[in-house]
C-alpha cells in the first residue's frame, strides 16, 4: 500500500445490522478514509450516526451521490444494488456489494480474501461479498483443499437471527419475553419476512432461510452451494446444504462434513492444517471442552473451527464445527477486507 | 392380546422428565394396569404423584419392591438400572430400560417397535429403549432402508434441553430471563452436568451432548452410531453424527443425509415411501412452507419428516429434516409401545 493514500468512501445501508458493523470495522481497521458518505433509502435519510467521534447525517442514495467516490460499500438489499451499483461504477467508484444481486454474475468476482483474493484483479467495477454462511465455511475449507483436495461437502447450519436484520433480532427477544410471560405471540418476520407464513423463532429451530426454490432447496441453501463452487473455483465440487435458523442473536455455527481427494490424513493432520489456515482460530480440545461457540465468537473477526473428527467410516471424510460472527467475517469485516486487498494489490489508488 | 389381561407395573424414576411422560403415556394409551408402583431414589421417596385420578406415593426402589411385578419401566439413570434391573428380572419382571446401561449388551434387544419389534422374542429379561435422538432417526430410516437399502448416514442434530432433564429446562428458562434482564448468568448444568465446564445455553448452540470419548466423538454421538447399527441390524452401515444442544425445551430436530444402496429414486419417491412408513407423519410442502417444527411436534407421538430433497450431486443421496418429541417417541412413548408389543406378541401374559 502506498503510504498516506486515502479514499472517498460511500456506505449504502448505514442504518442496517451489517451497515453498523461496517462503520465499526472501518474504525477498528483504521481504514484510510478521506471522506465518508452515509447513504440510505429516503425513509432513513436524515438520521444522525456517530462515526469515529463525528456526527454524520444519512443522505438519500441517488446516482449523483457517487460522484468522486472511490469505494462504495453496498448493504441495503439486492434491489438497491441492482439499481445503484452500476451508477456508482459509471461514476468511477469500485463497488463492494454485500447483497446477492451480482454474486453469480460471471463478470463479478466473489471474494473471500483468505481464499481467492487474486480474483479481484478481474473486477469490472463491482465486487461481490459472499453470503455470511458461505464465507465462514470456505475459510475453513480452503486449507483442507490446499492440503488434500476436496470432493464433497455436506453442511447443516445453525444460523443466528441477526442475519435476517435488526427487526428479526427484536422479534426474537420480544417473542422470548412473551413466552416467558406465558403471553400470546404473533410472529411477523421470521423465518422470511417476505414469505407467506411466519413461525415462532424463540425456543425453536426453523429449517427455512430465504424462500424455497423449485428444487426444494431454499435460496440460502443454493447460495451456499453455488457460491462455494465459485469462490473455490471448482464447479465439479459436490456441495449440499441444509440451512436452519436458531434463536441465537449473532454467530452462525455450521456442522460441516468434508470428503477429501487424498485419503490418509488423520484428524490431527487436519487440525494442523486448519491451525495454519488464514483467518482461522482452531479451538479444539475435547479434554478441556474447548470448541467454538456462537456466544464467544460474537464481536471477533476470526473463523473458529473445532470438533475436528475423522469420519467413522470414510477414511477421507472429516467432520468440523465452524463458527463465526455473521455480521463481521460473514459480512462487514469481509467487505472491508476486500477494500484493503484492493488497495494492497494496487487495484485502486495510485 | 388376550382380553382383560392386566399387569403389575413398576416405574423407577417417576419424578423425572421422562418418568412423568411415561405416566401420561400409560394413561393416554389405556395400558392394562392391574397395579402401579412408583419407585425412586431415597431422595424422592415419599413424594405424591397423581395418576389417573389417584394419588400415589413414591417409594424407595429396593430389590424386594419388584416381587410380583410383571413389567418394570426404568428411567432413573444408568447406575440405578445396572444395580436394580437384574434384581427385577430375578423376581420375574420384564424390564424395559430407558437408560444406556444395557443398550450395547448383545443379549439385550434394543427395540423401536416400528423397526425391529421381532427382536423382543430374544429377550432374556431386559429390553433396552434406545436413545431419543436414535429412535426418531431410525423410524425415518426404516422405510427408506426397506425400499432402497442404506449405505451411509450423516446426521447433525438440533436437540432440546429436556433431554438433559428437568433441571436443564429450568436452567435454560432462568438463564434466558437473566439475559433479557441483562443480569449475570452462572451456567451449572449444561451442556453436561457431570462434566467440568458449563456454558450458556440461552441464545446459543452447544456442540457437546454427554462426555467426550477417546475418538473425539461425544457419547451421545457414539450412541447414535452404535444404536442405529444395532436396531437396523447392519453393522456395516456407515453412520456418523454431530450432536448439538439448542435452547429448545422439547422436540429434537435432525438434519439427516442418507445414501441408499439402489439409485434412481426421486425425492418424490422417497416422500411416498416415508408417508407410508410406520409412526411417520410426512410434513413436506415447500409451497406452503410446511415442514416439521419442534414446537409443533411437542406432545405428539409421531416422528415428523419433511424437507425431503435429493442430494445435488449423489443420485442415491437424500436430505431429510426429522423432528419428534424427545420425551415421547424418544423415550416414554417408545417404552410403553415396547410393553404393548410384549403383550401383543404374547411374550408376556398368559
From TrEMBL, chains A, B:
<dbReference type="Pfam" id="PF01118">
    <property type="entry name" value="Semialdhyde_dh"/>
</dbReference>
<keyword id="KW-0457">Lysine biosynthesis</keyword>
<feature type="domain" description="Semialdehyde dehydrogenase NAD-binding">
    <location>
        <begin position="8"/>
        <end position="123"/>
    </location>
</feature>
<dbReference type="GO" id="GO:0046983">
    <property type="term" value="F:protein dimerization activity"/>
</dbReference>
<comment type="similarity">
    <text>Belongs to the aspartate-semialdehyde dehydrogenase family.</text>
</comment>
<dbReference type="GO" id="GO:0009088">
    <property type="term" value="P:threonine biosynthetic process"/>
</dbReference>
<dbReference type="GO" id="GO:0009097">
    <property type="term" value="P:isoleucine biosynthetic process"/>
</dbReference>
<keyword id="KW-0486">Methionine biosynthesis</keyword>
<feature type="binding site">
    <location>
        <position position="245"/>
    </location>
    <ligand>
        <name>substrate</name>
    </ligand>
</feature>
<feature type="binding site">
    <location>
        <begin position="15"/>
        <end position="18"/>
    </location>
    <ligand>
        <name>NADP(+)</name>
    </ligand>
</feature>
<dbReference type="GO" id="GO:0051287">
    <property type="term" value="F:NAD binding"/>
</dbReference>
<keyword id="KW-0220">Diaminopimelate biosynthesis</keyword>
<protein>
    <recommendedName>
        <fullName>Aspartate-semialdehyde dehydrogenase</fullName>
        <ecNumber>1.2.1.11</ecNumber>
    </recommendedName>
</protein>
<dbReference type="InterPro" id="IPR012080">
    <property type="entry name" value="Asp_semialdehyde_DH"/>
</dbReference>
<comment type="pathway">
    <text>Amino-acid biosynthesis; L-threonine biosynthesis; L-threonine from L-aspartate: step 2/5.</text>
</comment>
<dbReference type="GO" id="GO:0004073">
    <property type="term" value="F:aspartate-semialdehyde dehydrogenase activity"/>
</dbReference>
<keyword id="KW-0791">Threonine biosynthesis</keyword>
<feature type="binding site">
    <location>
        <begin position="162"/>
        <end position="163"/>
    </location>
    <ligand>
        <name>NADP(+)</name>
    </ligand>
</feature>
<dbReference type="InterPro" id="IPR036291">
    <property type="entry name" value="NAD(P)-bd_dom_sf"/>
</dbReference>
<dbReference type="Pfam" id="PF02774">
    <property type="entry name" value="Semialdhyde_dhC"/>
</dbReference>
<feature type="binding site">
    <location>
        <position position="326"/>
    </location>
    <ligand>
        <name>NADP(+)</name>
    </ligand>
</feature>
<feature type="binding site">
    <location>
        <position position="103"/>
    </location>
    <ligand>
        <name>phosphate</name>
    </ligand>
</feature>
<dbReference type="InterPro" id="IPR000319">
    <property type="entry name" value="Asp-semialdehyde_DH_CS"/>
</dbReference>
<dbReference type="InterPro" id="IPR012280">
    <property type="entry name" value="Semialdhyde_DH_dimer_dom"/>
</dbReference>
<dbReference type="GO" id="GO:0071266">
    <property type="term" value="P:'de novo' L-methionine biosynthetic process"/>
</dbReference>
<feature type="binding site">
    <location>
        <begin position="43"/>
        <end position="44"/>
    </location>
    <ligand>
        <name>NADP(+)</name>
    </ligand>
</feature>
<comment type="subunit">
    <text>Homodimer.</text>
</comment>
<dbReference type="InterPro" id="IPR000534">
    <property type="entry name" value="Semialdehyde_DH_NAD-bd"/>
</dbReference>
<dbReference type="InterPro" id="IPR005986">
    <property type="entry name" value="Asp_semialdehyde_DH_beta"/>
</dbReference>
<comment type="pathway">
    <text>Amino-acid biosynthesis; L-methionine biosynthesis via de novo pathway; L-homoserine from L-aspartate: step 2/3.</text>
</comment>
<feature type="active site" description="Proton acceptor">
    <location>
        <position position="252"/>
    </location>
</feature>
<dbReference type="GO" id="GO:0050661">
    <property type="term" value="F:NADP binding"/>
</dbReference>
<keyword id="KW-0028">Amino-acid biosynthesis</keyword>
<dbReference type="GO" id="GO:0009089">
    <property type="term" value="P:lysine biosynthetic process via diaminopimelate"/>
</dbReference>
<keyword id="KW-0560">Oxidoreductase</keyword>
<comment type="function">
    <text>Catalyzes the NADPH-dependent formation of L-aspartate-semialdehyde (L-ASA) by the reductive dephosphorylation of L-aspartyl-4-phosphate.</text>
</comment>
<feature type="active site" description="Acyl-thioester intermediate">
    <location>
        <position position="132"/>
    </location>
</feature>
<dbReference type="GO" id="GO:0019877">
    <property type="term" value="P:diaminopimelate biosynthetic process"/>
</dbReference>
<keyword id="KW-0521">NADP</keyword>
<feature type="binding site">
    <location>
        <position position="159"/>
    </location>
    <ligand>
        <name>substrate</name>
    </ligand>
</feature>
